């Protein structure tokens, strides 16, 4: 646990300014502070309280829309891959203490999201990027040391938006699933050939405005399925995988309002992945519990702050129960919903990202950036030349 003395030592060693960020439980006045504890309670004698330490990053490309983490240079330290709608793909190599090297940029278009996997099976992570302005997916193969090689492009749909990588046909090679948000509502699948190239896309219908996509085995048959958040259609589509890289027709479940990002994770400990979406229009996150056959229960919603866009699942307070973090675009902060282990969550705690207003946080990813075995957050912000890192800590 990093106390005040260690925090001061860390500041002097890195030259960074740090700020202690505490979460305010929704509905309490500013004097009533409660921080999530790793014993499952709020406050109390001997409790270890969840806090975040704000660390500055080098400047990143403007209009950062998405961020992913991976060890790009093989040093066992997570690095950042940033999607920028103005300058393409950015890479920031981690130092292992919560700081990062200056960004390396690859100007490959108007990039909305990125996925990282080893597409050519050479042991080095590669990057796939979705560009809604051209209808293309760009693949940059890792060339060692964290660098990326020359881009290769593949036709996706009319407007590729959110991209994920996983082995969809069981050949031990990562494939791609990418939503097409504008025009004809589809999700495209591109099967990897194992040499870093991809077969032509095959598209599957969704409801209107498919935004985020998640990949998981939703019915427990050993075959990966797709879940799509349909922003305009106000629904979640599930497409069951056949195990050969093809998918059945969608089945839809209504969502509370304009779902954007979607993630999968087991929220209630039954061994089945559940779904979480950001309901942008109603300032809530939605939880869909999995019935076990690939269908979902009616959405249960939890209040967050204004205009949530990105969501992620992780055990932030290390109590063995999954938590949810959401970025709030209009509020400019993040909400954390600490889980009870049964797919229910305590009222949100909000965490300020920084003192700059109008930064519009979008995507969020969870990893351990300083090697203390506690989950940290990285947030892509669209209105400033920056991303933000919040280092997780637990204090008396």
Structure characterization notes:
- The protein is an all-beta fold and 396 residues long.
- 55% of the residues are buried.
- It starts with a helix and ends with a strand.
- It contains one helix and 30 strands.
- It is globular and about 55 Å long.
Please write out the topology.
Layout (H helix, E strand, L loop, with lengths): L3 H11 L4 E3 L2 E2 L23 E7 L8 E7 L8 E6 L3 E5 L11 E3 L4 E7 L8 E6 L4 E9 L2 E9 L4 E7 L8 E6 L5 E5 L11 E4 L4 E7 L8 E6 L4 E5 L11 E4 L4 E7 L8 E6 L4 E5 L11 E4 L4 E7 L8 E6 L4 E5 L11 E4 L8 E7 L8 E6 L5 E9 L1
Antiparallel strand pairs: 1-3, 2-27, 3-30, 4-5, 5-6, 6-7, 8-9, 9-10, 10-11, 12-13, 13-14, 14-15, 16-17, 17-18, 18-19, 20-21, 21-22, 22-23, 24-25, 25-26, 26-27, 28-29, 29-30
Q: Total strand count, please?
A: 30
- Please list the strands of the largest sheet in the order they lie side by side: 1-3-30-29-28
Distance from first to last alpha carbon: 9 Å
Q: Strand share of the residues?
A: 35-45%
Coarse shape? globular
- Which class of secondary structure composition applies to the elements? mainly beta
How many helical stretches?
1
Q: Look at the structure and give the mean pLDDT.
A: 87
Proportion of residues in helical segments = under 10%
Question: Low-confidence runs (pLDDT<50, min 5 residues)?
Answer: 1-46
Biggest sheet features: 5 strands, antiparallel
Gyration radius, rounded: 20 Å
């Amino acid at each position: 646990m990093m106390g005040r003395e260690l925090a001061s030592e860390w500041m002097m060693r890195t030259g960074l300014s740090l700020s202690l960020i505490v979460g305010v439980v929704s509905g309490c006045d500013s004097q009533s502070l409660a921080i999530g504890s790793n014993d499952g309670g709020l406050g109390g004698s001997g409790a270890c309280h969840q806090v975040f330490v704000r660390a500055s990053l080098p400047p990143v490309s403007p209009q950062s829309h998405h961020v992913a983490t991976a060890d790009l240079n093989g040093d066992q330290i997570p690095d950042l891959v940033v999607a920028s709608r103005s300058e393409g793909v950015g890479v920031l190599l981690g130092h292992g203490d919560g700081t990062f090297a200056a960004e390396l940029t690859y100007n490959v278009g108007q990039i909305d999201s990125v996925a990282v996997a080893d597409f050519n099976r050479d042991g080095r992570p590669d990057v796939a990027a979705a560009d809604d302005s051209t209808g293309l997916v760009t693949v940059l193969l890792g060339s060692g040391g964290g660098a990326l090689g020359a881009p290769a492009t593949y036709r996706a749909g009319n407007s590729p938006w959110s991209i994920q990588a996983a082995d969809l046909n069981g050949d031990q090679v990562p494939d791609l699933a990418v939503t097409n948000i504008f025009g004809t509502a589809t999700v495209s699948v591109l099967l990897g050939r194992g040499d870093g190239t991809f077969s032509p896309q095959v598209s599957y219908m969704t409801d209107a405005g498919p935004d985020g996509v998640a990949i998981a085995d939703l019915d427990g048959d050993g075959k990966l399925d797709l879940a799509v958040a349909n922003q305009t259609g106000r629904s979640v589509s599930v497409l069951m995988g056949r195990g050969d890289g093809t998918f059945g027709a969608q089945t839809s479940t209504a969502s509370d309002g304009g779902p954007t990002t979607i993630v999968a994770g087991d929220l209630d400990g039954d061994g089945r992945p559940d779904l979480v979406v950001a309901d942008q229009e109603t300032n809530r996150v939605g939880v869909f519990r999995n019935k076990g056959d690939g269908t979902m229960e009616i959405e249960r919603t939890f209040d967050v702050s204004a205009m949530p866009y990105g969501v992620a699942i992780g055990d932030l307070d290390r109590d063995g129960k999954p938590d949810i973090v959401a970025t709030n675009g209009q509020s400019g902060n993040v909400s954390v919903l600490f889980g009870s282990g049964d797919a229910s969550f305590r009222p949100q705690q909000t965490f300020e990202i920084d003192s700059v207003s109008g930064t519009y946080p979008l995507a969020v990813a969870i990893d351990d950036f300083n090697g203390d075995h506690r989950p940290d957050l990285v947030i892509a912000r669209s209105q400033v030349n920056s991303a933000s890192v919040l280092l997780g800590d637990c204090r008396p």
